[in-house]
Structures are given as structure tokens and as C-alpha cells.
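Table S2 (text version). Query chain:
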Amino acid sequence: MIYYTSKVHNRLNGMDFSPEAVTDTLCLNPQYPVSLSKPCKYILDSGAFQDVSDDRRLSFKDALARQLKFELKLGQFAEAVVSYDRLVDEQKCETGQFKSRVSESIAEEYVNETVNASRYLSSKREILAPRKLILSCQGSSTEQYLRCLKEILEFAQPEDIIGFGGFCIISRSKIYEEQFYEIIKIAFPMIAAKGIKRVHLFGVGMFRVLLRMELEAKQYGLECSYDTSSAELNAVMGRVFDPSKLQLSAVFSKDEKNTVYHPAKLALLNIRTINHFWKDLESGI
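Corresponding C-alpha cell output:
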């Protein structure tokens, strides 16, 4: 399992924050104007998540242009770029953005747009080389999700990465977790049969889910990766990754922030520990 730390700030609670100092793999987003203190491998998200709160959708052409403009400013090519999918688990209301699945009927339109976003990105593969393409899937129901995947696989190439979107909501209900397991059990052999070697899960930091995904993928020779900002968010709340519990556990109180611990330093500790966990797992420890 490859862990891509989502970097969304250059400073955290008043201190410089450079996760690239302790990890070689990041997830960056054109909506967050971060910089890098040293070159590293990164995937470039599409910005679709943030566009929900802004209540807007760009054209596929403009979304890609936004990614490439960010990349140019950063001064380093991305390892992979993500298609501009339409999220089924993020909605907007008068008070702001919130996590909730849209209905299956509404999601039908979102799935069609998601497939077309991947098709557009696929049509640009020659000019985007040597970057890889992450073709993201969406869907409200299991059947809908698998239909989305099936259509994307029709034009996907072996060097592509299949992205699993729409599960940032997975911690809200066991129903979503079970649905994810049901989907990957069917999806992984489909992906492997296409000759694709890698899958990516967006915005999920639940270790029991990630571990199960990793073990399921190994049966089909698939490499897994994921991105999340949970190491940073939990560090702000004084939580530390505990490998024995497969979770980020409360260690420090709110009153101890910036005195006993600093979130920026604690986040780096979490990132290092999580990376060690996956390396140890790969080694069979």
C-alpha cells in the first residue's frame, strides 16, 4: 500500500509544515496553493471536491488546464493526474458543504459525467505523458458503481490507475463500508483482467478498510495506493497513530496544544509511523 499524504497547507498552527521532509509521496490539489521544499512524487487531484462548496463545475478542458497551471507554478511534473469526476458523496446546502450520498437517480447523471471526464483525460494521454492517468469511478449503488467502472475500462489502458471515489463517507455507516467491500470484490478481478496493475482510493484513512483493500488486491496482483489528510487533521486534535489499534488515538488534550505538543510536528510523526506500518506489512512483519 502506498500512502499519499494530502498536503493542503504550507504552515500548520503557525509552524512551517513540510510533510515531504518525511515522505516521498504526496497528494496535491490545484485548489490549495502549496509549495514543495524538495522534489517528491505526487499525484495531482482534480479539485472536484472543492468545487462542490463553490457550487460550480468546470469544463473538462478547464479542469485539466487548472491542474497543469498548478503544476507549472509548482515547477515539477506530477506522477499522475486525476480525472474530474462528479462526487456522489458530497452535497451543498445553505450552510455549506456536507457529506451525504445523492439518490441513485441523481447519481446516474453524475456517473455519466464521471465516465466522460475519464474519457476526456484518456484522450489527452499522449500530451500528458509521462504522467499516469487516474481514472476515477463514482456511483451511489453497487450496480451503478460497477457500471461506471465497466464503461471506464472500455477505454482504459494497462498503464492507467483506476481510482475509487465516492467513499469519503465510508466512516459514517457500516453500510458504506460493506458496500465498498462488495464493490472491490467484483471490481478487482475486472481491473486485473484488463491488464491494469494499480488502484487508488481517494480520501479514506480507516485502516481496517485500507488493510482489507490491500489484502483483496494482492489476490489479483494489484498494487494499492490511497490519499488522506487524516494524519494532519488528527494531529491538530492531539491524536497519534497507534499500529496496535489500527487507528489514530487521542494522546494529548486540547489544552496541551502548542505547549506539550505542536500539531505540525505531531503530523510528521503520524506520517512517518503510518509509512513504517505499511512497509512492515509488506515485509510480512
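Notes on Table S2: The chain has a mean pLDDT of 95. Residues 2-231 form a domain with the TIM Barrel fold (CATH 3.20.20).
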